[in-house]
């Protein structure tokens, strides 16, 4: 395919005025998106009728004779019909080497003319919206469904335990059973995603957990063992989501946009909690607790339809992505062949990897306790009814959704201004540890429901800064193995969920909520020390 037009000028010549670019205009005879080689050139010097302008592209490269120096290329207009009959003015010593450029380069031309923002070119319309952010939004919506399907049990467990006469230990067993399955697929999901691509793995996960969600009422009525099995199966499906998402974004998102993209995706989890906690009480009140699982589970099929038609594991596989965006992504992310083998010895020999694992455990202990037990805390300690418990649980998660994106913006801004990635990750994660630790210690000193809810809100709001800390660090230290690294550290995080959720039920039978919060605070402080001593933002695994 011919690529560019070249016009040779004498050293002393200036570019003829008639060769300078004219204002773009449109012609109804030519479609903007027609996929054929085409040209832009100035009309008068090319002998074209003035009415026959179009938006087809070619590059005019002007080269000085003798010296070999090249002047700035100019983009000019020309109708497609004259592609083989270009005539330059007589003042030009001419040699037309080639005449056409494929039309998909048009967006690159416009990028050069209009500039490039962090969301892509500044054009208008859906066609100018960056494809990488379509992928981010789809991952965001998957995580929205993920937490909707996860937190509905924390609300539904209240009428379910009354109906089936479950004690706190049984409730803790049911809540923790989800994490048994979630634990099984963390590393496996990361390996699978790194080998076959994140699109297939994340699609599988959403379908699997949606089916398990819809089967939950049936299993509960059959018997407790069947309910536990379904909860394990649901955990298996959700377990692959984070490694698969991490694999996809490591290929689609440049490092300068990493924190804010991950923050947006993870805010989907928080908004999923908000949505689930807001609508679950209403559905239970009007249609009974089984309606929560049926309605939420059915949403996965809607998401899957869009995912299969719009998503790709990497920009290399996407036939619709614009050339300028693909070039931007390739220059700022890792696009290598799929992983064939995992260098386990190398990965496990790195102290920053262990810092991730330990810190993830410490972080998730407190997070999962709040996720699964917060409605019970509001109901038993603050004496809120079922509806109030769900509504007040919304506030901390809504705060997390906002603060996660705010933290992501801060982190990317600091990196873009020259601060090292290592320093940024340590600052953000320290806030994500010490903030919740401080506000949880205040719960034992407040005596009004309003102040207790405020402490919860502030605790979860500062916790969300972790999305720009440890949750962004997998792609920093080993972007090619981002799925495996996330699987490793999140395995530790899931163990924290399993032990922490079950232990909370045991502690509440023999102690108080103050004891529950003290354990979380101790782990937050331990995580802060380990993270600041051993973590890094540099790539250590290639």
Automatic annotation (TrEMBL):
It comes from Zingiber officinale. PROSITE patterns: MFS (PS50850). InterPro entries: MFS, MFS_dom, MFS_Na/Anion_cotransporter, SLC17A9-like. This is Major facilitator superfamily (MFS) profile domain-containing protein. The chain crosses the membrane at residues 133-153, 173-193, 200-220, 226-249, 261-280, 292-312, 353-374, 394-415, 481-508, 515-534. Signal peptide: none annotated. It is found in: Plastid, Chloroplast membrane. GO terms for cellular component: chloroplast membrane. Keywords: Chloroplast, Membrane, Plastid, Transit peptide, Transmembrane, Transmembrane helix. Belongs to the major facilitator superfamily. Sodium/anion cotransporter (TC 2.A.1.14) family. It is a multi-pass membrane protein. Probable anion transporter. It holds the Pfam family MFS_1. GO terms for molecular function: phosphate transmembrane transporter activity. Residues 135-539 form the Major facilitator superfamily (MFS) profile domain.
